[in-house]
Amino acid sequence: MGIVTPGFGGRPRAETPDLPPGQYLTSDFPVLSAGPTPRVPQESWEFVITTETGAEYRWSWAEMMALPQQTPTVDIHCVTRWSKFGTSWQGVSLDTLLDEVETAADYALAHSYGGYTTNLPLDDLRDGQAWLVHTYDGEDLPAEHGGPARLLVPHLYFWKSAKWVRGIRLGFEDTPGFWETAGYHDYGDPWREQRYSGD
Amino acid sequence: MTELPYLDGNMLDGPLSELFAVDLSTATGRCAHCGSTGPVAGLRVYSQAPGLVARCPTCVEVMMRLVRAPDAAWLDLRGTTFLRFPMPAEPPPSA
Ligand SMILES: [Zn+2]
C-alpha cells in the first residue's frame, strides 16, 4: 500500500510524553491531500454556518478578519502517524462564530471548497477547542496547507481540521464525512488512538 | 409466486477472488458522477493522504477510495458505476 510511510525521523514516545500513542515527532509539515488543491481568492471566499432550521450565517473575508483574533500555539497529530509540536496560528475562535448562531444541534459537518467533509460533535468546536485559521507561522496560510482558511481542531486527529473550509452544517444527526465513511473513526481522539472505525 | 432463495455472502468468495486476482490496471471503470468510461490505470490517485483516493480524469470526482488498517481494508466504490475486467474467453457453448 502506498500510503504515507511513518518515520519522518522523530524521537520515540518514551522521551516525549506529549506524543500520543503510535505517533512520531516531526519538524516538517507534511502536505496531505485527497485531491487537487482548490485556489480560492479571498475576495470570493465566504464561510457559512447552516443550522438545523436551514438558517444561514455568512461571513465574508473582511467580516471574518474584523472579528476578534486569537493566536493559538498547539500540537497537531496526523492519523498517518506524524505529530508536530508548537504550531502557531492566527484566526477566529469557533466560539466567536457560534455565539452569533442560534442552534440546538448536537453535530457538525464541516465542508470544504473542493468537496471534502468531516464530522464532529458540536461540543468539540466550542470552549476554546477550535478555530477558523488563516495564518500559519506569521504568514498567510498557503493553499497546500488549506488556505485561505482551514479549521484547526488540535485535540482530534488532523483530518478533522478541514482544509479549505467553506462552512459547517449543524444538525441532530451525526453524518460521517469523507474519511469517516471510508474506514476512519467517527471521533478520532489521538490519545485513545481512535484511527479506524471500530478502534 | 415463490420468493427466490438468497445465498449467504460466502458464495462471493469465488467470484470476487477471481476478479481481484486479475490485474486491476487492465480494467476499465465508469464514473458515477459524469458517466465517462476509461481505464483504471488512467485514474488520478492521491496517495499522500490517510488512504488512496482515485479520481475520474474527466470530472475529478472521487471514483474509488481504499483505506488500509493493519488488519482490515475498506474499499469504497460508490463513485464507480461499474468496473469491466478483460477475462479469458470462455469456450463457446457446445451445440
Ligand atoms: Zn467523472
Automatic annotation (TrEMBL), chain A:
Pfam families: Oxidored_molyb (PF00174). Gene3D superfamilies: Oxidoreductase, molybdopterin-binding domain. Residues 1-22 are annotated as: Disordered. Residues 35-179 form the Oxidoreductase molybdopterin-binding domain. It comes from the Bacteria. This is Sulfite oxidase-like oxidoreductase. It comes from Micromonospora endophytica.
From TrEMBL, chain B:
Pfam families: DUF6510. This is Uncharacterized protein. It comes from Micromonospora endophytica.
